[in-house]
Amino acid sequence: MRKLISTGSPFEKTAGYSRAVVQGDWCFVSGTTGYDYAAMTMPETVEAQTRNCLATIAKALADGGFDMADVVRAHYYITDQAFVDVVFPILGETFGDIRPAATMIVCQLNKPEMKIEIEVTALRRTA
């Protein structure tokens, strides 16, 4: 059974995507930037953006019946190599004990205010 998860962001409708898609025991969370979707603002710092990304991802996973501990794969996209040492500790707060397979790439993102984008895949744990 397929379930589509939305944050209500206007970007999802405009670009034609879901925040996450649940297919069976899998949850695929789209690349998530640091927007505060309640205020539709982007914080200036990469630290605040990273925390917003993780909060949006956690909510999408929860809406699909998953939690952060189910994450098995993470892709991190940052716009400046200098951000690596800044975001690693923040990512470690969330994923330190989970330790998903992960990749970090330095690249350009869709809008100049975006400093980080995070995409994860989760697999429902069985008892």
Automatic annotation (TrEMBL):
<dbReference type="Pfam" id="PF01042">
    <property type="entry name" value="Ribonuc_L-PSP"/>
</dbReference>
<dbReference type="InterPro" id="IPR006175">
    <property type="entry name" value="YjgF/YER057c/UK114"/>
</dbReference>
<dbReference type="InterPro" id="IPR035959">
    <property type="entry name" value="RutC-like_sf"/>
</dbReference>
<protein>
    <submittedName>
        <fullName>RidA family protein</fullName>
    </submittedName>
</protein>
